[in-house]
Design brief:
Blueprint lengths: L7 E7 L10 E10 L22 E12 L2 E12 L2 E11 L2 E12 L3 E11 L4 E12 L3 E6 L4 E5 L3 E13 L5 E9 L7 E2 L1
Antiparallel strand pairs: 1-2, 2-3, 3-4, 4-7, 5-6, 6-9, 7-8, 8-11, 9-10, 11-12, 12-13
């Protein structure tokens, strides 16, 4: 177990156009993630756990929504760029009988990621509504540079990953001030939970 501060994220959202009219309501988002948590590239895996990503990252995105009575259609697109982290010296392999066999992780280049979401909400009546949405995420592989005790370096990389889910939900107005919502998500790839409530 580990107790520590995680990565801190700062964000800004800006709506350049008013809702209504022919132009969809548009929200632009910008954010930065700071590696304030314990880095997975600097810990001892035998007795420590990381609480952060270990690198700086920038995020940007756009969200659109349009009222087409009785529908509300929406969609969003986002992009995340992780900055490379160099100057590392994490031991990732060591033969206890041969200290000269050490291999160090020296540099990490995180993969970029893209996200897409789209769907609609539908008013069944003044008291009930339903919504349907799809989400898609794609992450490029990360690259790792390793160096042995002799100074020779090698590179390795992870594969890209794809995740996708379909979400179905409903909302019920209980009183003028309170509503109840329920949703079910169905995973569409092996990287997603089969079902989430």
């Amino acid at each position: 177990s580990a107790t520590d501060l995680g990565d801190i994220s700062l964000g800004l959202a800006w709506q350049p156009f008013k809702a209504g009219g022919r132009i969809p309501a548009t929200i632009l988002t910008f954010g930065v993630s700071l590696p304030t948590g314990s880095s997975p590239y600097e810990i001892n895996y035998d007795d420590e756990l990381s609480t952060g990503s270990g690198h700086y990252a920038l995020q940007t995105g756009i969200s659109l929504s349009k009222v087409i009575d009785p529908l509300v259609a929406f969609g969003s697109l986002n992009y995340t760029y992780g900055f490379p982290e160099s100057g590392l010296s994490q031991i990732i392999y060591e033969d206890p009988n041969d200290p000269s066999s050490r291999i160090y992780l020296t540099e990490v280049e995180p993969g970029q990621s893209f996200g897409l979401a789209f769907g609609f909400g539908y008013a069944l009546s003044y008291q009930a509504s339903m919504n349907l949405a799809g989400q898609l995420g794609y992450s490029l592989g990360s690259k790792y540079t390793n160096a042995g005790s002799g100074g020779a370096s090698t590179e390795s990389s992870t594969g890209s990953t794809l995740s996708a889910s379909l979400n179905i939900g409903t909302g019920w107005r209980i009183t003028a001030a309170r509503s109840a919502y329920a949703s079910m998500g169905i995973g569409l790839t092996n990287n997603d939970p089969d079902v989430s409530i």
